[in-house]
Each structure stands twice: as C-alpha cells, then as structure tokens.
Amino acid sequence: MPPPLNHPSLELELLAQTFFVKQFPVDAGVPAAIASGLNAAQQTPGVFSITRTGEEISVVGEAVDDDGEWKCIKIAGPMEFGLTGVICNFTTPLKDANVPVFAVSTWNTDYVLVPKEKADAAVAALTKGGWRFRENSAAPRDA
After folding, report:
1. SS (H, E, C) 5-64
2. Residue 57's CB: how many other CB atoms inside 10 A?
3. Cα gap 121→25, rounded to integer Å
4. What value does the mean pLDDT take over residues 14-26?
5. d(Cα 134, Cα 76) in Å, to the nearest integer?
6. Strand arrangement of the beta sheet that strand 48-52 belongs to
7. What are phi and psi of 112, to 5 degrees?
8. Which residues form the CASTOR ACT domain (predicted)?
9. Which of 36, 68, 89, 138 has the maximal Cβ count within 10 Å?
10. Contact (CB, 8 A) for 104 and 60
11. pLDDT digit string (tens) for 34-53?
C-alpha cells in the first residue's frame, strides 16, 4: 500500500513541455541521432529514456518546439522501492476517464505520459481521485 496521497513524494507535476514517444525495431539498434540525444542531455537536462527489450527499442524525450504528441505527469518522488500499488492507484482514475498512458519508471520516481489532447482530462481525473498537483505545475488551478 502506498503512503497517503498527501505524502510529499506522491505530489504530481504536469510538466510544461511536450514529449515524443518513438519505437524502433530491436535489430536496427539505437539510431545515432537518438543516442546523441542521450549525451546532449548532460548540457540540457530533462526527461530522456531509451529502453531496449528483445522485441523493440522505445525512446521517450522532450519534443523540440513543443511539437510532441504527449504531456508528462511526474510523480514527485523519490519513492522507496518497497512501495506497492503506486502505478495502479495512479492509473485507475485515468482508466476510468479513458485516458491512455505510457509510463516510464526511474530509480527515484515515475513519469506518466498522456496524449496532450487528454492532459486536462487526466489532471481532472487525478485531482478527483485525491492526487495533488504541486503549485509550480503546469496543471490548471481550477482542475
């Protein structure tokens, strides 16, 4: 069971920028332009993830010129590894609101992408479900 939703590590932040999600065949390897983006992140820190499995390579990153198809909701973190049910409790209100998700987990926290046209519905559903957005979040205040 996760800590109460008012726990500081479970506060949410709707990030201002948009994001891209790309899929590549596993036998193609990581494209050089994508790999260079990982190294460039040292100069411009932000969310950038490459995940490789036996079936695919998935890449998530901040879009250039706000032309991404996704918005990102960050769970504040850091969270203890022993917490259970966080993603389940987070995605249930989104499922009920018919908002698809693409989740990326790190050691400290989770980043959940939602289609940008459903970002307001996601914020409203999560708020109704008891989740709190940080004051500096891009989430609308009246959600």
Report:
1. CCCHHHCEEEEEEEEEEEEEEHHHCCCHHHHHHHHHCCCCCCCEEEEECCCEEEEEEECH
2. 19
3. 32
4. 93
5. 9
6. 48-52, 56-62, 12-25, 70-75, 110-115, 102-105
7. -120, 120
8. 69-127
9. 68
10. yes
11. 777 666 655 666 888 889 89
- Nearest Cα neighbor of 18 from 104, 140, 138, 98 is 138
Helices 86-96, 119-128: crossing angle, 10 deg rounding: 120
Kindly state the percentage of the chain with pLDDT values over 90.
47
Q: CA nearest 73: which of 143, 133, 8? A: 133
Residue 31 preceded by cis peptide, ω within 30: no
Tokens in use for 70?
């996704």
